[in-house]
Amino acid sequence: MRIQDFSYQLPDGRVLFDHLTADFEPGKVNILLGVNGVGKTTLLDFIAGVSERQDLPFEGFPEMSRIAYQMQGAPFTGSAKVIDAIRMMVNLDRPAANFEVSQLPESLKDIANSHFRDLSGGQRRLVILEGICQLQRDLYLFDEPESGLDVKIAVQMMTRIKALAAKGKTVIMTTHQFRNLPEDNVHLLVLAGKCIAFTGTPAELMAETNTQSLEDAYLKTDS
Ligand SMILES: Nc1ncnc2c1ncn2[C@@H]1O[C@H](COP(=O)(O)OP(=O)(O)OP(=O)(O)O)[C@@H](O)[C@H]1O
């Protein structure tokens, strides 16, 4: 999946991407890093097809119906129960599926019959994430999935995302958090200066910047 030499101007005339080229690796967790406002969400919108990408230099991405996209936020009606919300999402792809509580991850079994209105913000997002992961798609997009979550829920979220890649699915996610990032099966892309300033593994990024932590490495890449 490749974006080849993509330039893009915002409606107000600002150049957001200038000859941007990016390769996303299949079967991996591709992590898009970059400061606020650099264009990560805009790029995900193009990849998802939410912003029209026909005739643009996006090569090898699945069509929209084969992509699951978790945007920021987690809207759902308060009266829905967790299990019903997940069933609804499962049924989008598998109308005949009889999804049971026993098929939920351990972290959600206890709240399966809770109403959405009684969940915390983090729990709501974990439920939506599970629904997205249950969809049978080729490409999964997550926009800052763990932002604002406590460490325990953030770890559960990353575990679920890593499991997708372990099954051979391709994931593209954005994040501002470095603590819980997986180290294996990861492809990093740093968006800076209107293009992709670095791609590679976390170890390669640290070696290239001569740093000991991913956070320090990223700060050097982005400076
Ligand atoms: N439809 C639009 N019209 C005008 N400006 C827009 C539009 N959509 C996005 N922008 C601008 O494009 C820039 C990139 O926004 P985007 O949300 O893609 O950044 P981001 O890297 O995801 O940021 P963050 O990390 O804060 O979520 C911002 O300056 C934003 O204000």
From TrEMBL:
InterPro entries: AAA+_ATPase, ABC_transporter-like_ATP-bd, Metal_Ion_Import_ABC, P-loop_NTPase. Belongs to the ABC transporter superfamily. The keyword Nucleus does not apply. This is ABC transporter. Residues 1-218 form the ABC transporter domain. It comes from the Bacteria. Transmembrane segments: none annotated. SUPFAM superfamilies: P-loop containing nucleoside triphosphate hydrolases. The keyword Electron transport does not apply. The lineage of its organism: Bacteria, Bacillati, Bacillota, Bacilli, Lactobacillales. GO terms for molecular function: ATP binding; ATP hydrolysis activity. Keywords: ATP-binding, Nucleotide-binding, Transport. Gene3D superfamilies: P-loop containing nucleotide triphosphate hydrolases.
